[in-house]
Amino acid sequence: MAPSSAPRSDADIVERVRALRPLIREHALRAEQQRRVTDEVAAALTDAGTHRMNVPRRYGGYQSRLRTQVDAVAEIAAGCGSTAFKTVIQVGCSYIAALFPDEAQDEIFTSPDVRVGGTLIPDATAVVTDDGYVVSGTSAFATGCHDADWHLLTARVESGDGPPEVLWAAVPMADLEILDDWYVSGLAGSGSNSVVARDVVVPAHRVLPVGPLLGGEFPSKANADDPFYRMPVLLLFCAWTAPNALGLARAALAEFTERIHRRGITYTFHERQHEAAVTHLQAAEAAMKISCAELLTDEFVALIESRAESGEPYTVQERARIRAQSGCVTRLCKEAVDLIGSASGASSLRQEVPVQRAVRDLHALSLHSFVNPATNLELYGRVLCGLDAGTPFL
């Protein structure tokens, strides 16, 4: 890919992203209509340095602290939820790529601005060969695949003696076919099409087994002792995804409190919505839900950063609680935006009004396994009740 003008430091990356919010917001409807983030926005975010946040410093990356990444994602989401979700997946997959064998990293990180996508459900199959694997199959939800340079394809290696081994295979996007099948009601601009691998040859050094990774083991020697890359991958994806909900909710509340001064409430005596007592209750309740979501986010981000600095192991209850908290953040933000949407009147149904898009995007986001409220709360509840978590994905 062409080099960007991204600064060498992430010292003000949140401010750089915040400055792009008007551009991101302006392109949000077009992104939804063309079902992928526009080239102009993708290039602007690359120039701001977003793709460098999890790239190892030896390749020119930032290794940005988690708090910085969370704040940057929230700023992007305030302009467009789909653009934020694409950012989460590509930034997160760059983190995973940094856990691959060092030889693979040398191939992937030829630029600190490389765009790495990935799929997280093992729908493809991998067959062992003398030198690696041959991967075939269709994988859905390949977010950001249209402009990615590499793709981390999740595949399973079938075994007659037990459950299949699951692994990530690093594949150049040029080796994959993109299906035109992304027609959805929420996060429609994220470009999460399916990708197809047809007998793609993957050398052994471009494979990362998922099982050992969940236990904290990965083959990179260069990053093995770096506390930045010892953070639990699944918890990081929860932490990266939750601020997508926060940004959407904050922007919806800001728009709502601005619109209520310009419109009345039809078939009532209220010529201005902001004068009605019901509006006061709606605005306050939405704001309190968002504030609670912010506090929960602050808590789990602080815990993950603290564990990264100290090297102290997590308890199972802490891991389960982080998942539950990320789910609660998403639920609270969805409830706030649903309330705002229902209070915004029929005029808010127009495509150019961002509130209706935020309602749909938050519904879609809350269905994602990283932050699904019901699933994550059940998991935490099992642990609180003295049962096994029932999943290795902690």
Describe this structure as you would to a colleague:
There is one protein chain. With 394 residues, this protein is of the alpha+beta class. It is built from 13 helices and 8 strands. Helix 9 packs antiparallel against helix 10 (277-310) and helix 9 runs parallel beside helix 11 (316-342).
List keywords for this structure.
394 residues, alpha+beta, Butyryl-Coa Dehydrogenase, subunit A, domain 1, Butyryl-CoA Dehydrogenase, subunit A, domain 2, Butyryl-CoA Dehydrogenase, subunit A, domain 3, 8 strands
Give the arrangement of secondary structure elements:
Elements: H1 13-19, H2 21-26, H3 28-34, H4 39-48, H5 66-79, H6 81-97, H7 102-108, E1 116-118, E2 124-128, E3 132-139, E4 150-157, E5 165-172, E6 177-178, E7 195-203, E8 207-209, H8 210-214, H9 233-259, H10 277-310, H11 316-342, H12 354-366, H13 373-384
Parallel strand pairs: 1-4, 2-4
Antiparallel strand pairs: 2-3, 3-7, 4-5, 5-8, 6-7
